[in-house]
Amino acid sequence: MPSTLNSLHFHGLIRSRFKMQKKAYHQMIESPEMLDYGVYLQCDKLLSCQKPLADLCTADELQFQIVHQVEELWMKLMCFTLVDILNYMEKQQHHRVITLFSRVHRLQRLMIDQLDVLETMSPKEYQQIRLQLGNGSGQESPGFRMLLKLPSDIWEMFERIYLDNNTLTVSQIYDEDYAHDHRYAVAEALVEFDEQLQLFRWRHMFLIQRSIGLGSASLKGRPVDLLQKGANKQFFPKLWSIRSEMTNKWGEEYGKVRPSIHG
Ligand code: HEM
Asked: How far is residue 75 CA from its own chain's centroid?
């Protein structure tokens, strides 16, 4: 009997010691030592952009906030870079345009990959977080809203600079006068941007399917599967349709249904 009491006492001590340690660890996480690195990066401000650890509704809430905040930062960098791209398009600095588009494409891939982190959250625990959101949703994301505005300016600039004020056609770049030149390379950079944006929207739908299910309604009461319309949206439709136009044109020459090559 006394030994059971001793063991209970011992485990109680360990538990309360760990509780103390956890508090101390949390304090260290939230109040970092501010050396030059931290001062330059404003780590104190950055690490206080999330709810205080003591107020989290569930441990998963921290990753939920951080993933969204990181995505918002990537979108800030993407929008800033796209504005620079517009400037370099106008100045006809094609190599800059292509290099900066490559940065944007990498950021888009990162954004898609990072959605993955949230799939470690259980649907039940997400419901606790969902209660914290008011009726907010990603449709109100400042970065995403700006990202949806930029493609029309990019297309206008493309028409002005790379289609010579629409005296050239997309078909000339891709087919009749195809030269794999700067016009083609920039057009393909636009296509990649459009493709990655669609992929992000599709990937996000799978995240929704995994957490709240596609048959549910958003916090504004809209059916979630309405997002499919956005995911199908092409920002540069002429750069997509040229491919089927070319295939169909060639198909007329070599026959739409080809004979088999076996036997
Ligand atoms: C468990 C995690 C998530 C859930 C359950 C979720 C759920 C939703 C829902 C239901 C909508 C539709 C809102 C409406 O119709 O009003 C939406 C939109 C959106 N969410 Fe999420 N989301 C999650 C994570 C994220 C993350 C990490 C991002 C990061 C950027 C994000 C960005 C967006 C964007 C940009 C939209 C608008 C999409 C469009 O118009 O195509 N979401 N989300």
From this structure: 7
